[in-house]
Specification:
The structure is a single chain. The chain has a domain at 7-83 and 159-258: Rossmann fold (3-Layer(aba) Sandwich), CATH 3.40.50.300. The protein contains seven helices and ten strands. The longest helix has 21 residues, at 238-258. The strands form two sheets. The protein has a six-stranded mixed beta sheet, sandwiched between helices. A four-stranded antiparallel beta sheet has the order 2-1-4-5, covered by helices on one side. With 259 residues, the protein is α/β, with parallel strands linked by helices. It is globular. It binds adenosine-5'-triphosphate and magnesium ion (MG). Adenosine-5'-triphosphate binds at residues 18, 26, 28, 48-54, 219.
Length: 259
């Protein structure tokens, strides 16, 4: 195998072209290359329409690239798989299933026996702080709790990468910070890689080891910033403001160029 052992996901010269209804093509991504290593925490940030969701869908296997290749451990991604867990903002839980049943779903799909499913799902719910809510239905849970269930559901099958598309965008600021802290803890505990899409500079600065800044029309990568600030990061510290300003500056550049 020629792939470097540290590269888990390899996006090579990918273009994604959607055919518009009137026949005009949209270049959601143009010639995008990106490698993501095992255990990395990468944030994708960029203006609306720059192809962030498209990129995640390619890694998830919901879409195949128009051009280029997307590989996982050096093998082309052709379909969704349990080694790539997904938490999307609107990737709703099953409304007719309890939190526990939602978390058990993936385990049932892979054929785990009932008692093992119970044990693993209970453990996953406990890890996201929802041991007490196992028997509640989604409509009985707050937005933050629902996203915790979604995280537990994705993590319970022990994926190698967690693909997250603005997962905390719809919750209030305080809940969002708690969810971010919990996610960092789970990331450390499990060693899972995380690819996290956000519009929020503060969120990227708080979470990421790498911030990939994208630009739109066509969707491209404008900057790949390595963030070596240690965890946990302190929003009140001066270097956090510097980090925020760096990301913000790069984003502003891409938006100015687009305008
Ligand atoms: N199924 C589709 N058919 C046609 N065009 C699409 C489709 N999905 C996305 N697009 C277009 O591709 C481009 C990239 O969309 P994408 O959803 O990946 O962007 P995004 O960065 O996730 O945006 P946002 O921040 O608003 O979520 C946009 O111009 C969008 O209109
Ligand atoms: Mg999107």
């Amino acid at each position: 195998m020629t792939t470097a052992s540290s590269s888990l996901i390899d996006i090579a010269a990918v273009s994604q072209i959607y055919a518009g209804r009137d026949g005009t093509p949209t270049w959601a991504l143009r010639d995008v290359s990106l490698q993501i290593g095992k255990g990395e925490f990468v944030c994708l940030i960029g203006p609306s329409g720059c192809g962030k969701t498209t990129l995640l869908q390619l890694i998830a296997g919901f879409l195949g690239p128009t051009r280029g290749s997307v590989t996982f451990h050096g093998r082309p991604i052709t379909a969704p798989g349990p080694e790539r867990g997904v938490v999307f903002q609107d990737y709703a839980l099953f409304a007719w299933m309890t939190a526990m049943q939602n978390v058990e779903f993936g385990l049932r799909m892979r054929g785990d026996a009932r008692s093992r499913r119970r044990d693993l799902a209970r453990d996953a719910l406990a890890r996201v702080g929802l041991a007490h809510a196992a028997d509640k239905y989604p409509h009985e849970l707050s937005g933050g709790m629902r996203q915790r269930v979604a995280v537990a559901r994705a993590l319970v099958v022990e994926p190698e990468v967690l693909l997250m598309d603005e997962p905390f965008a719809a919750v209030d600021a305080m809940t969002r910070q708690t969810l971010q802290e919990d996610l960092l803890r789970l990331w450390r505990e499990t060693g899972v890689s995380v690819v996290f899409v956000t519009h929020n500079i503060d969120e990227a600065a708080f979470l990421a080891q790498r911030v990939v800044v994208m630009g739109a029309h066509p969707g491209t990568i404008k900057a790949d910033l390595t963030i070596d600030a240690p965890y946990p990061r302190n929003r009140a510290a001066a270097d956090f403001s510097t980090l925020y300003a760096t990301i913000s500056g790069r984003l502003a550049e891409t938006e100015r160029r687009a305008a």
